Task: structure prediction
Amino acid sequence: RYIANNQTMLDGRTVTMQEYMREITQRGMRGEIPFDESLKSRFGMACEFLTLEEMKRIVERIPLRKGAKEALQQIERGYDICVVSGGVYELVDHCLAVNGIGVDYLAASGIKTVKGKLEVFPLMDKSTPIEQLKRKSRYDYVVAMGDGANDAAMKKVSNRFIWINPKDGLQQKDDKVLGDDISMLPNMLRDFTKTI
Result:
């Protein structure tokens, strides 16, 4: 991968680093390329320019989805919050901490230093953490949420699933869906518990 003047090549086009990151992320989220390939490519590119601490500072500037913090604060009063993310564990954990969001369980992609360079080891199958949670007696009913193709595995093994502004082609006829504003999530969960 050739990088110069904050530009690189993608599909024969010269693009900025930001355009590269955005496009590779979207391709992975839509399922056009394997999510692990997308994550490795993005993280590898980021490591060319940034330390992990610099990445954490960038994460601090990324806004949460509208209504997310308030919804999660309401939910934590009656539910355990478990985060299963394809993102890098250290960055997801930092994002939660700086936004004052406590979680009961976090599963995400790992990183380690290999030959002096940081490498990411993607969480390959999001169904595995869900199945582990369900094997624990206090997690016999799991509601999962997601927005990308890599979240479909959670849909298959959770008791209920909610798409959050899903990428094209993921939503099926009877799926529950929230838009970018997830402030209605607590009401949706209350409706689910009435049917248990």
Q: What stands out?
A: The mean pLDDT is 86. The chain is about 40% helix and 20% strand.
